Amino acid sequence: MWIDLTVSVSRERAETAIANEKMTAFGHLGTHFDVMNLVFPLENAKRSGLFFNKAEEALSGQDIELEADELSLVERGDFVIFRTGAVETMAYGSQSYFGHHPQLSVPLIDVLIDRGVAMIGIDAAGIRRGPEHTPMDQYCADHGVFVVENLCNLDAVLKSKRLVRCDVYTFPVKFEGLSGLPCRVMAMV
User: Fold this and answer.
1) Distance from C-alpha of 132 to C-alpha of 106, rounded to nearest angstrom
2) DSSP string of 125-153?
3) What is residue 157's three-state secondary structure?
4) Which of 26, 35, 45, 166 is most buried per CB count within 10 Å?
5) Could you tell me the residue range of the domain that residue 145 belongs to?
6) In Å, what is the CA distance from 51 to each residue of 66, 75, 92, 136?
7) Residue 106 bridge partners (DSSP)
8) How many CB atoms lie within 10 A of CB 10?
9) Gap between the Cα atoms of 80 and 107, Å rounded
10) How many Å apart are CA 48 and CA 76, to the nearest integer?
11) Within its chain, how far is the Cα of 115 from the centroid?
């Protein structure tokens, strides 16, 4: 069964997002990945996706971490995706969505990079927020890792499980000269 993980962008959602986030431009609207200085390799179109349900942890306000047993499952080339519940509980494009979303811990991001993941995805406005957002996206890009933001429907993949592995397909729009590329992301479960 196919599950679309892409945020739907209506005119109203686009106007709200652009009004509330200075970085939002066409390339950063809805589900997208931050290109920074990378070219999206075609082998990233299909990756083994490892989904983690971290919605309960995200409610605590602490940075999201993975336990040792969870980290042991991360493989080179994975698309590691985090469900925080942000896109389900905060209005996409609102000030709170952009400014108060859950975030991954910096040590976790470093471990994912060290393990050679291809992409990191999250159902929030970024893996870090505020002044750390863009520098962390650049840090990931400098290590060959794409960050996919504003995913949705992750609960449809996880179905209340702690983690799930399945194939994930990512299809960016072929625009040039943008720092972010809108993309369609789908899971095959």
Assistant:
1) 10
2) S-SS-GGGHHHHHHHHHHTT-EEEE-B--
3) helix
4) 35
5) 2-188
6) 12, 12, 21, 21
7) none
8) 11
9) 15
10) 10
11) 17
Bridge partners (DSSP) of residue 33 are 148, 181
What residues have CB less than 8 Å from 84, skipping those under 6 apart? 54, 55, 58, 64, 101, 102, 122, 123, 124
Sequence letter at residue 85: G
Q: Hunting for tokens 């840090």 — which residue is that?
A: 139
Tokens 């196919």 -> residue? 2
pLDDT in tens, 119-173: 999 999 899 998 998 899 999 999 999 999 999 999 999 999 999 999 999 998 7
As for how many domains the chain has, the answer is 1
Cα gap 77→98, rounded to integer Å = 28
The stretches of 23-90 forming alpha helices (DSSP H) are: 55-59, 68-71, 86-89
Question: Is the pTM here over 0.70, yes or no?
Answer: yes
Cα separation, 9 vs 14, in Å, equals 6
**Tokens matching residue 5:** 């993980």
Rounded-to-10 torsion of CA 56, 59, 65, 67: -20
Residue 4 has pLDDT above 70, yes or no: no
Alpha-carbon gap, residue 18 to 60, rounded angstroms: 28
